[in-house]
Design goal:
Rossmann fold; oxidoreductase activity; SDR_fam; seven-stranded parallel sheet; alpha/beta; oxidoreductase; disordered N terminus
Length: about 260
């Protein structure tokens, strides 16, 4: 080893990514691949999953496998998850990055539209996490890292269907953490503010949103270091703390987050 260079040996982690083609997930996958982790990537669209898989291999992942699946199909979760973990030879980290904003106006007009948003952002993740939590608790190891949202901290007229689903997910994760932390399993709730990704690029003011690579670096570091709840960027912990203190009689008259 040359003078002045310390060893940077890294033991590869076995990481399952559910929602691998989301902007934040893709950025995290790049970091994990570059340090030589083992990856199993699940996404909805074959062509998009293929691009992420190829990129991870080029960047140096120790192992990459994948599946194309509709994660809204909760009946298929046990077989999907069992196959993924068998492919990895175990599990160190499960990263759940699924979710969709939906269209608030459509959800207001039709409960079918609202139901799709609620299912994708709460019911389906809860199904995945129930299976994964039981798997990890039986083995007394593992990290479940899950993207929720600051939108779940308080309902706003501009996105209350999406926000209510994320509020449910955040509460679910809190209870799950309380249940399995004593079994040696970590549960990390990730609460991003607006992040500049393909999903948000058409939103008003998106040029001011957080850089996805910086957000991903923070998430990867938090998964490595431990912790229970991560606001990213960190300023959102203060922002949401203030917003939650606003009395309802005042809050209902505001237009926070409105188009």
């Amino acid at each position: 080893m040359s003078a002045g260079k310390a060893s940077t040996a890294h033991t590869p982690k076995r990481i399952l990514v559910l929602g691998a083609t989301s902007g934040i997930a893709e950025a995290c996958i790049r970091s994990w691949a570059e340090r030589g982790d083992m990856l199993y990537l699940v996404g909805r669209t074959a062509s998009k999953v293929g691009v992420v898989v190829d990129d991870a291999r080029v960047r140096g992942a120790a192992f990459v496998d994948s599946a194309v699946a509709d994660l809204d199909d909760t009946a298929a979760h046990p077989q999907l998850l069992a196959h993924a973990i068998n492919s990895l030879g175990g599990l160190d980290v499960a990263f759940v990055a699924m979710g969709t904003m939906g269209e608030q106006a459509q959800s207001e007009r039709s409960f079918d539209a609202a139901d799709a948003v609620l299912h994708n952002n709460f019911i389906a993740p809860a199904s995945l996490l129930t299976w994964l939590a039981n798997y990890c608790a039986q083995r007394h190891t593992g990290t479940l890292a899950v993207i929720s949202s600051v939108a779940g901290e308080r309902g706003r007229k501009s996105n209350y269907v999406y926000g209510s689903a994320k509020a449910g997910l955040t509460a679910f994760l809190s209870g799950l953490r309380n249940r399995i932390d004593r079994e040696g399993v970590r549960v990390l709730t990730i609460l991003p503010g607006p992040v500049k990704t393909a999903m948000t690029e058409s939103m008003k003011g998106s040029e001011k949103f957080a850089d996805v690579n910086k957000v991903a670096a923070t998430i990867v570091g938090a998964i490595d270091k431990g912790g229970d709840v991560l606001y990213v960027p960190g300023i959102w912990k203060i922002i949401m703390g203030v917003i939650k203190l606003i009395p309802e009689s005042v809050f209902k008259k505001l237009s926070l987050g409105a188009e």
